[in-house]
Amino acid sequence: MHTKSIIPFALATLGLQALARPHCKSPTNGKAIYIISNEQKNAVLALPIGKDGLFTPGTATLTETGGAGMSGLEGNKSSGPDALFSQSSVTIAGNNLFAVNPGSNTVSMFAISRQDPTKLTLVGNPVAVPGEFPVTVAASLQNKLVCVASSGAVAGVSCSKFSAQGIEAMDDLRVFDIGQTTPPVGPTGTVSHVFFSEDESTVFTTVKGDPSRNKTGFMAAFPVETSDCEVGVSVSQEGMRSVPAGTAVLFGASTIPGTDDIFVSDASFGGAVLSNGGGRDDAATEAFTVKGKGVVEGQSATCWATVSPATKTAFVTDVGVNRLVEMSVEDASIKKVIDLSANGDPGLIDLKAAGHLIYALSPGNGTTPAAVTVVDAGTTNGNPLIAGLSQAGLRFGCSSVSVQRLDPVVEPGQIPSAHVHQIVGGNAFNATMQGDIGEKGSCTTCAYTEDFSNYWTAVLYFRHENGSYKRVPQYPNAQLGYEGQDAPDINGGMTIYYTQKDFSGNGDKYITAFKPPCPAGIMAIHHFPACWDGVNLDSPDHQSHMYSTTKGQFREADPCPASHPVRVPQLAYETMWNTTAFDGMWPKDGSQPFVWSFMDGKGYGTHADYMFGWQGDSLQRAMNSSCMFHACGSPGMQGILKTQTVAEMNKCAVKRTVEEDTDGWLSELPGQTMPMEAKA
């Protein structure tokens, strides 16, 4: 499913932008969408986004720009939905927002409140642009530069510096001779999109051709220059124009992170990946070539484009067809078509990717009101998905699949690893764990049969007075007894939790699976970070690609930071160590006899690791639902997830790779060459 927010007035504009969380203590989740009204008194509409990525009802603001709007022409009448024939009529750099005023030939700058992203303050007065009918704006926070492209009778790009005091006077126009009028007649033969390169060293502009008048479109590039004089950083007046082969009506564009390539939409066929061949240093001097070209079947006009950091793919929209088309950023091949026709919108224009979500603007058509549609880009089944206001929580038992010295995360490929681990989950567990674990396993020791993930932690040992060691067994959570199942029959293992930011109806109260006081034993709880950077599936330290916003137990999570914007389920697991078997063996001096399987003679600590292995979209289905615990699925109860009996769980096992005794009375801990000192 998807969701959309209706904009309560006739919106004849485009310009959509997402703001990363401006301050770590913001009372909201710190994101907003900004759209210009493009009416006679132009204004910026700010729609706040909640922690779930959806819009917060009743809290939108409208702030006048001090300038005027204006629409382009199609034939002899004002253009309807596609009023400016461009992308990015608003843009953001740091805590400043910039918006064009097509009817007054000016650009406005706003300061965005750090506490409330919907509160905008106009900085200075709107600044005059030397061109006519400005339609698109770009800003560089690194260089403190803003550039505006105009598309009227006087067309081209002009730039200026900006500061906390506002925008300085714009420099001379870099003229585009496109033979237009003011307002322009489009959409062909007009300026499309101005934007900075990923490293902010070059200003690019796409210009649409007009095949009916034998006018060729092009990509213009102007380098950012640094001078020792008082001028400082500026944009060169000299640039390069390139006509990528096979393109005709270049429109929206987006840089592709980690590369020098650019993804562009072309209203004549679909989308393309462009390369300048010379690398970043030559971006403004080398001609662009087409690396890949994707033809979108059934298009009306594929015009707007964005790249999602979460999926590493591009998304394009069409003003005449209500759908999102996902395309490869390597060769522009079509990955998926997301049909949104059920919501009744006539089509989509400007759009923005933020984390795993896509925000797309439908400007309305006089009958259907303007709206913003929010789509989850991370779905794998071709349908738009979003968690919305659901509150899902999974709690399930996993019996032991193996106890041995392997650690494919910290010591991949090393046989044996440094110390013993207890492992639960799928039977694809091995020393390296390559590829899709969910597709490689044939069974799992977890209650949910679609979870082939592996969860492992260090093992607890009892140290006898005579210096020998014995592994401490685990016992299961007694509250996990399913209908017709006996929880004590679970072969050791762990209790696994997947939750969203909190538990519905519980606010920030602690949620525990065991009623204190615990009669006997030691319980270890491991919580995993729930904010992902949206790009890397791993990092050298196996931690930096994730970020934790919680500080213990199941409390409501704080918003994810801009560096790690993608919220993933909160994973935690519990292990109960049954120490009662050693009740009569404690040292006579009362010292603490329990030690972990790793060398903890210098101090105590614990650790755990996890390898994702849910099949297909099974975990996403659960998180998108509102099921809680057993209601998500258990033997005898129909749920969103498939389950198995305890007996079936216990049958699954992993063949031992490291042949050594881990269960008998041992003279030393496996993998540890020196005995550990017991600590009081």
TrEMBL record:
Q: Where is the DUF1996 domain?
A: 516-614
Signal peptide range in chain numbering? 1-20
Q: Which UniProt keywords apply?
A: Signal
Where are its TM segments located?
none
Alphabetical list of InterPro entries matching this protein: DUF1996, WD40/YVTN_repeat-like_dom_sf
Protein name in the entry = DUF1996 domain-containing protein
The organism encoding this protein is Xylaria grammica
Q: State the taxonomy lineage.
A: Eukaryota, Fungi, Dikarya, Ascomycota, Pezizomycotina
